Amino acid sequence: MTPDAAPTTLRDFQKAHDFFVGIDSDGCAFDTMEVKHKECFIPNIVQTFGLASVSRMAREVAEFLNLYSRWRGINRFPGLAMTLDLLAERPEVAQRGVSLPPLTGLRAWLAGDPKLSNPALKAEVERTGDPDLIQALAWSDAVNQSISEIVRDVPPFPGVRESLEALRGRADVMVVSATPKDALEREWREHGLRDFVALIAGQEVGSKKDVLARAAVGHYEAEKILMIGDAPGDLEAARANGVLFYPIDPGAEDQSWRRFLDEALPQFFEGTYAGTYMDARIEAFLALLPEVPPWKKG
Length: 298
Fold this sequence. Notes:
This protein has 13 helices and 5 strands. It has helices at about 35-50, 55-65, 75-90, 90-95, 105-110, 120-130, 130-150, 160-165, 180-190, 210-215, 230-240, 255-270, 275-285, and strands at about 20-25, 170-175, 200, 225-230, 245. It has a 5-stranded parallel β-sheet with strand order 3-2-1-4-5, sandwiched between helices. Helix 11 (about 230-240) links the parallel strand 4 (about 225-230) and strand 5 (about 245).
């Protein structure tokens, strides 16, 4: 399918094959999670919220939360609130006399279960003029600007292209991500992968759970719907919709994609993926992502 012929919205997406595969992007298809958080998200947290005096702790907290814990892959806005909460629990922060912003306005917005995207936040800023939301939007815009300047020439993991080639003609493939669509389009086009997917659904479309529900559930048999992801949120989206999940293990992405191509994908097409094999892969995946941060142990 050429880009011109591809659907541009979820409403335009139509079933063309018996199988559906949703693929997350950052940290799953592309090795971009580390660089985006370490070079874009975290430095802008330190700058926007005046955390230079506790930058080491802020970095440790944000890296654990977003990359190495059960919350890996969390949307940036609740992730920001959780980062500040975890940081506030560290005694070193209080000892340095640092006052962390309560972000009351942001938390109230999050409690309303909004669509967690920059456009949605911008609309709320224009509606309310809330200073917390203005600050959160400034941070998020700065993150996007940093990503556009820094994250270039980061290829997909080995095995991604081969897997997409194996799926072509047999499954409808969609990018299901919490990243802004503009960044996704740029990355997938930059590496010649855009033509392999029918649609790119970024954060503007809705949560991964909602995208799977709208695009796949009821249109395909449940055992013919598969979500591929590198974060527990991807697993939760699959489970919430009663569909299958294949994990890309953080730190072992190359091996995970090779295993998908050699083992999981043939089983998926044969109808034998669910059960013992899938359960074992998910168990090993979750074991890699702890809930307790290292500074709280011992």
